[in-house]
Design brief:
The chain has 206 residues and is mainly α. The protein has eight helices and two strands, in the order H-E-E-H-H-H-H-H-H-H. The protein has helices at 9-22, 42-56, 65-74, 79-82, 95-105, 111-126, 130-149, 173-196; strands at residues 29-33, 39-41. A two-stranded antiparallel ribbon has the order 1-2. Helix 2 crosses helix 7 (130-149) and helix 7 (130-149) runs parallel beside helix 8 (173-196). The longest helix is centred in the last third of the chain and has 24 residues, at 173-196. The chain is globular and about 65 Å long.
Amino acid sequence: MQTTTPLRDDELYGLLDFLRRAEALKSTMRTTWTRTGRQESTAEHSWRLSLFAMLVSRRYPELNAKRLLELSIVHDLGEAINGDIPAPEQCGDKSDGERADFEELIRPLDDGTRSWLLKLWEDYEYARTAEARLIKALDKLETVLQQAQGTNPQSFDYAFNLEYGTKYTNVDDFIRAIREAADAETQNCVYARQAARGERVGEEGR
């Protein structure tokens, strides 16, 4: 197997430098926990989002499956610079900061690769294509599903997730069905937490 064009030394070193920088995602923690109670990394979230997208893509033959995977991998890459900001702590338009982080991360790459990755990031950030809108929906759903599945701290606010990302998950009947199932799991977590506190199930704690 032969690549179409030879790789220059500066391109090779830039590629390796970028991969070394992106490795930080393996240690970038999110406010999400796994089933075993270990805090989840951004890299792990991006992996399961990619798996989610690969499986779901079969229901959308009109969409570009390769682009779905590219968007899944790229969407949180910038967190390798300054980490993840938990959804409850986000305020205002955070796009400028995330774009700056993303541009800093991809800086070692050649011009063509930087341009390609930045266009992918912009597509996801501004939901310009049907592929990006689907990945935004799956991104929110993966988070909600993980937080319902995870062994979370006692202070974790499950009820927050019943409204989290709803403006992105009203895509079509299929995505709405996944959302309903995810919300049902979250609601069960709310009930379990209430029962553990001795509250009446179905009532908000006072």
